[in-house]
Amino acid sequence: xxxxxxxxxxxxxxxxVIGRGPxxxxxxxxMSTGGTVAPLAHRLADHCTAVVYxxxxxxxxxxxxxxxxxxxxxxxxxxxxxxxxxxxxFGVSSGGALVIEATASGLPVRQAAVYEVPFxxxxxxxxxxxxxxxxxRAALSEGRRxxxxxxxxxxxxxxxxxxxxxxxxxMWAGMESVAPSxxxxxxxxxxxxxxxxxxxxVSVPLLSVAGGASPxxxxxxxxxxxxxxxxxxxxxxxxxxxxxxxxxxxxxxxEFFSG
Length: 259
Description:
This protein is α/β, with parallel strands linked by helices. It contains 11 helices and 8 strands.
């Protein structure tokens, strides 16, 4: 990251600006940094001014206790101000929940787009999310960062053998370093149930996207987001999963944000 701005509570935020055209801030999901969405930003660069940033508590950005979802909304307000005073927002997974909250809060957002926000009421009524929250809090409060990462990986559907291999890999130390931020993404998702009132407060156009090869509950959640916002649109990308390919997603976002 080559730029810095400061949030309302004094937290330093690292970001980078790529491309030209309408400004769009890309919000990453759990266990991710701005670098995770940088490939998408580069794909958008011919059509949009893409802004990638490290959310608080990860990468080159700072962190300030105590955490609250409102602080991350203030982070986006600071970024929007730094890049011109208004912007579009795109969020992937739990980052999409943050985009919804920021937009509903009245930030100067022109358009918003989200990819597969995992509202778990379409999976099991949110029971799994509640159990995960309890176990995650215990692991982090006891300093068991590795166990916290394992909990998240199981939540995403990875098998035990794959998790064991990940724990023995060189990338594990980096994953443990951002483990505390798992609590931030958990907080952004709340109880895991579709936030009808917040979605109804989103007054700008919102595009909700899902992968055609993703589990049915994720597509149902994405469709429900589009139905609940006043100006929502739903798109399914054939053959895509939660790990959407930037070259497939970018043209859809470019059309939406530059249209």
